[in-house]
Each structure stands twice: as C-alpha cells, then as structure tokens.
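Long-time lurker, first post.

We've been arguing in lab meeting about whether zinc ion would sit comfortably in this protein at all. Half the group thinks yes, half thinks no, and nobody has a model to point at. So I'm putting the question to the forum: if I give you the sequence and the SMILES, can you give me back a predicted structure of the complex? Inputs are below. Any interpretation is welcome too.
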Amino acid sequence: MLDLVRINSLDDFLAHHAATATVRSAREDEEFSLVQESDLFTVPAQCYVCARPRHLAVRFTSEERTANRLPNWREHLLCPGCRLNARLRACFQIFDSMGAPGTIYLPEQRSPFFRLLRERYGTVAGSEFLGPTYCPGQKNWRGLRHEDLALLSFDDASFEAILCFEVYEHIADYPAALRECFRCLKSPGLLMFTVPFLLSSQHNLTRARQRPDRTVEHLFPPEYHTDPFGRRDVLCFHHFGWQLLQELTAIGFHDCHGLLFWSRHFGYLGQESVVFFARK
Ligand SMILES: [Zn+2]
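Top reply:
Settle the argument with this. Predicted structure of the protein with zinc ion, as tokens:
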C-alpha cells in the first residue's frame, strides 16, 4: 500500500528510473484520471495520521495547468482533518513506522506537524526563526523559541532525532546547519529531512548566495517560499542534488540515503517525492 524505494546515489536513481518505466507510466495514467476540471478538487484516500478515509484537497489553477501537466501533488492533497499535505503525511507515516524515537527536535513550532508530533510522542522541542534581533534560545511573548539552524543553542548530543522539512534550502550556509544538526544529535541518532531535490542531478544548484556583507546575490530568478507565518518571502538559496549525501558523509553521518515514496491508498502521489535519512 506504501511503495518505498531506497536510493543511495545518482547512479542508483538512474538505474531505478530505467527499470520502472512501465510502473511509472501506469501511475501517471492513474494520476491523470484523478485530475478534475475545477481549480479546487478532492481525491479520496486513507489518511494515515487521522486513521480514516478523507477527501484530500488539491488546488490546480488554470495558470498551473498551463505550466504543468499534473498538480504538484507532493505539496497538495491536504487532509481536512490533520491539515497535512502529502509530503508531511508520508513523512509522519515513515517516521512513525521506525519505532519509539526518544527526544525529537524540529526547527518549526507553529505548524500542525509540530503539534502532531508533540501530541503523539511528547518529548518534542521546536523553534522558529524569529529574526536577527533574537538570540538563539530566546523566547518571544508567545513562548516561541528562536533558533538559527546554523548556530543552535542546544547542548551537544541533545536529541535522538532531528526532523527538518523544507528548511536547508533557505540557509545560505547550509553546511553549517548540517554540522549543527550533527553536533546536537546523540549517537545513535537520526536526521530526517526533505528539501527541493533534483533527482537527476549529481550537483546542487545554487540559486542565490550571500556576500560577506550579508547582501544577497541572485544567480537565478529569485524563488520565494511561504514561511509558517504565511509570508511568501522566504528566499530559496539552493536546490539540492545527490552531492548532498556525500556532504553529509563528510560531516560524519553514515547510512545517508533517500526514500522514494508513492501510494494511491494513502494519497501520496507525484512520482519524484523523496525523503532523506542520515544516521549519527
Ligand atoms: Zn489527516
């Protein structure tokens, strides 16, 4: 019901891609059959988080239809119960299947995903990037904790698991953030993350970089994502390629790999959806 494929490298992915042409074509036909004419439609599927059937919402506007043949399923298929999209529901299911995690840290604190983890596992620390006027570890009047992922205030070996979804691409010096995650993990410990990923590319794509005076130089048209406060102004510095796994290994992580996931039953559509794992 949930199809998972472990991929360790670009060569691995290319071999998998070549060997699965028939399956991919059948899945694409199935995905096309689910698309409806209206901008907003739903797809019936079982929500793993809610443990019941749901009508998952997809927004596919005429502008998006002109640009793409299918919706960006990974970021849609929003469950009306748990408020999670396909990517996050799949990540929760995969994480949940790995057993009792111990203490967890997520660099998010306002999201439905953070609330879900705290509800299910209890020992979960969260934070938000509140801005340069805050010190790492400082809390605002709402009790939100400020952290900069490239300069965390946590002690060494604080957590058994760090879950980092769609964050590294927004950090110009992302290797510093990976090193901080490594430092704050216990051994054994698990880093699980998603990023915008170029499955057919060995190399990362640097879209923008920060000059020494902290101003930004754009190498491609700027791409902005929406932050947890609903502001669509968070600059994306990087799209990643398979070199990222080698960078993780160089930092000291082992067993670095991606998992491709797809499931019609659980409503995880889109054939290039991948979540990454690295162990300390
Ligand atoms: Zn749900």
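For your lab meeting: Residues 47, 49-50, 54, 79, 81-82 surround zinc ion (CB under 6 Å). Residues 21-34 form the longest helix (14 residues). Whichever side wins, do check it experimentally.
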